[in-house]
């Protein structure tokens, strides 16, 4: 679509006919993408953007770089939600190349493999699995029954995905109108899973709004884990049962999270951090190789002392 057509769809005047390929964040945008600024804390990112255009409030319009067009509007985030639908791919491709399946790969009955997908050699795809369009799976990977891999997602080699897990489902993203109506933000990214990753049963790994939700090599994920959109898990992370990661959480390498622990969104956890069971992470953790517990989160040793004092009060 041209920038003029995009602007007209949300009732903004613009006569620029540059071709636009999609939407992205301020820092990740290319010269053929549109981005947005809703919160002034990202003004520094605005100054660095290479986007063709930015949805922005009038009060910040003078901060837009010279080579970027300001699409001035009252509600940039809401307009982004409306535009996201324009770039959403088809749910299912009717036409396209037949899937490619490598040698010695076993595909059991009642498996669907979409257009343009490829599966490496020596894989096992069990009954009830759904592999969407344009999915790539490496060599020697096992997909257990009733696993769903949405379109455009990639899984590496030597992986094990257990029954009932969903990879690439939509992230939880909505914008509010002034009267309270929810407008869906279409999740137009994907999920990228590295090599030697094991994912337990009935997990949900959401696709990104833009770009990718990333699971690095060697990650181990237990049953019933939810990973929100645009999260990034570094090499060797371990997430145990019922862990929940809110959107855009970054776990650096070898982070361990105990059962039912969780994070707020848009934060980062330092390498070799351990979060004890039911720990609630609400702020970024910058110091590596430390253990934390409780909610609000405190260092694990202090949490143990606190529990001891509370126990004595009850005697």
UniProtKB/TrEMBL annotation:
The active site is at 229 (proton acceptor). Residues 19-86 form the UDP-3-O-[3-hydroxymyristoyl] glucosamine N-acyltransferase non-repeat region domain. Its EC number is 2.3.1.191. It catalyses: a UDP-3-O-[(3R)-3-hydroxyacyl]-alpha-D-glucosamine + a (3R)-hydroxyacyl-[ACP] = a UDP-2-N,3-O-bis[(3R)-3-hydroxyacyl]-alpha-D-glucosamine + holo-[ACP] + H(+). Pathway: Bacterial outer membrane biogenesis; LPS lipid A biosynthesis. It holds the Pfam family LpxD. Belongs to the transferase hexapeptide repeat family. LpxD subfamily. The keyword Lipid biosynthesis applies. Catalyzes the N-acylation of UDP-3-O-acylglucosamine using 3-hydroxyacyl-ACP as the acyl donor. Is involved in the biosynthesis of lipid A, a phosphorylated glycolipid that anchors the lipopolysaccharide to the outer membrane of the cell. GO terms for molecular function: N-acyltransferase activity; UDP-3-O-[(3R)-3-hydroxyacyl]-glucosamine N-acyltransferase activity. The gene is lpxD. Keywords: Acyltransferase, Lipid A biosynthesis, Lipid biosynthesis, Lipid metabolism, Repeat, Transferase. GO terms for biological process: lipid A biosynthetic process. Homotrimer. This is UDP-3-O-acylglucosamine N-acyltransferase. GO terms for cellular component: membrane.
């Amino acid at each position: 679509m041209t920038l003029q057509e995009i602007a007209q769809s949300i009732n903004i005047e613009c006569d620029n006919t540059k071709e636009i390929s999609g939407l992205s964040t301020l820092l990740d945008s290319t010269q053929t993408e549109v981005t947005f600024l809703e919160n002034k804390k990202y003004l520094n990112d605005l100054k660095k953007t290479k986007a063709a255009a930015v949805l922005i409030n009038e009060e910040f319009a003078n901060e837009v770089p010279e080579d970027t067009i300001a699409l001035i509007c009252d509600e940039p985030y809401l307009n982004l939600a409306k535009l996201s639908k324009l770039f959403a791919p088809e749910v299912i491709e009717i036409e396209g190349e037949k899937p490619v399946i490598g040698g010695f790969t076993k595909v059991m009955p009642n498996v669907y493999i979409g257009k343009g997908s490829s599966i490496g050699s020596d894989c096992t795809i069990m009954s009830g699995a759904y592999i969407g369009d344009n999915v790539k799976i490496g060599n020697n990977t096992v997909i257990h029954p009733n696993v769903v891999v949405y379109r455009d997602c990639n899984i590496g080699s030597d992986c094990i995905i257990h029954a009932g897990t969903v990879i690439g489902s939509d992230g939880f993203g909505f914008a509010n109108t002034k009267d309270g109506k929810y407008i869906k933000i279409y999740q137009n990214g994907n999920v990228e899973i590295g090599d030697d990753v094991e994912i337990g049963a009935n997990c949900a790994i959401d696709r990104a709004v833009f770009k990718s939700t990333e699971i690095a090599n060697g990650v181990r994920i237990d049953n019933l884990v939810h990973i929100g959109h645009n999260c990034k898990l570094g090499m060797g992370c371990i997430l145990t049962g019922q862990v929940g990661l809110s959107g855009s959480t970054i776990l650096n390498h070898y982070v361990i999270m105990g059962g039912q622990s969780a994070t707020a969104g848009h934060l980062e956890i330092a390498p070799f951090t351990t979060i004890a069971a039911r720990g609630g992470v609400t702020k970024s953790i910058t110091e590596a190789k430390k253990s934390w517990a409780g909610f609000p989160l405190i260092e694990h040793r202090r949490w143990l002392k606190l529990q001891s004092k509370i126990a004595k009060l009850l005697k």
